[in-house]
Design goal:
The protein is built from 9 helices and 4 strands. By secondary structure, the protein is mainly alpha-helical.
């Protein structure tokens, strides 16, 4: 969900910034990571989510993960849209498919070159296009090299976390429905009572919530394992951005482009952690909503009748 809507624009921006010379976003990736909510139990995720209630059936559904998530998502999307608008404004013509492929290849080549270059090699590249670098330029170039390595580490951590995430099972298949309610003669009707139907549904939903809570606990542990690792790399990128004045403090066009590109790569830490937390949060809230509907009788065929 989050990766499709947010991560892909981040990836495309990483390519666009290698062609267009806009400046980086003047903010802290580390701060955004700190603001990502950590999923707790189904009850807590449900309680903090935005809910809708059907006026006819009274069934509760989950609209979104709540203001803590939607606010952070909106900020991240606005940053991406602003950067894309700046890139489009500077573009004379939209790139072709071949140009996009070439841009992606150049991005990979620049990233590999930066990670393998020491400050002296970067200085030689700078000197060849802009003359002898100043002491401040040398300091920034050193930080750019460190930040590029940090961006690569973020990508590695994201892939590593995704692999671990895929091995954690919800185990909901092991939760089975209780036996059917017995049929009882009720006036001219023979069938299960509403009380039995509701009791069975509440029992089933309670056990599913308990099973999913175990899954949420494991996912939260994974989140808490990787958040400090992501933040450690993001701090390096943030420090470089501040020193480079988000591109304004770098006179060499090639290195200014790297300042922007590295930050866009750094946003991968936010999208990865936001995806993990947001998807788990949504699953937990929706499962708990089904328990709430069972307890109220809204989801039982005979409604709230006894």
């Amino acid at each position: 969900m989050y990766l499709k809507r947010i991560f892909l624009p981040v990836l495309s921006l990483g390519c666009m910034s290698l062609v267009h010379g806009q400046n980086a976003w003047q903010g802290s990736i580390t701060t955004m990571l700190t603001e990502i909510p950590v999923p707790g139990s189904g009850a807590s995720c449900y309680g903090q989510s935005t809910k809708l209630i059907d006026p006819d059936t009274k069934i509760v559904s989950i609209k979104d993960n709540g203001p803590a998530f939607t606010g952070l998502e909106a900020r991240l999307e606005n940053i991406m849209k602003a950067a894309m608008s700046a890139s489009k404004a500077q573009a004379t013509a939209p790139p072709s498919a071949d140009q996009v492929a070439q841009m992606q290849q150049q991005a990979m080549q620049r990233a590999a070159a930066a990670q393998s270059s020491n400050p002296q090699q970067m200085a030689q590249q700078y000197r060849s296009s802009s003359g002898a670098p100043s002491a401040d330029d040398m300091a920034v170039m050193k930080l750019i090299g460190q930040a590029q390595t940090a961006a690569g580490n973020i990508n590695r951590l994201s892939l590593e976390m995704a692999q671990k995430r895929g091995k954690i099972n919800k185990n909901l298949d092991s939760v089975h429905m209780p036996p059917n309610c017995p049929e009882v003669q009720q006036g001219g009707y023979a069938g299960p009572t509403c009380a039995c139907l509701r009791g069975h549904e509440v029992d089933y939903r309670t056990r599913r919530v308990a099973a999913l809570n175990s899954y949420v606990e494991q996912m939260a542990a994974l989140f808490n394992e990787y958040l400090p690792k992501m933040k450690a790399e993001a701090v390096i990128i943030d420090q470089m951005e501040a020193k480079a004045k988000y591109g304004e403090g770098v006179s060499n066009p090639a290195f200014r482009q790297m300042v922007v590109s590295i930050q866009h790569q750094g946003f991968g830490s936010v999208t990865s952690m936001l995806s993990l937390s947001g998807d788990v949060w949504k699953d937990a809230a929706e499962e708990y909503a089904k328990l709430v509907n069972a307890q109220s009788g809204a989801s039982i065929p005979c409604g709230g009748k006894p």
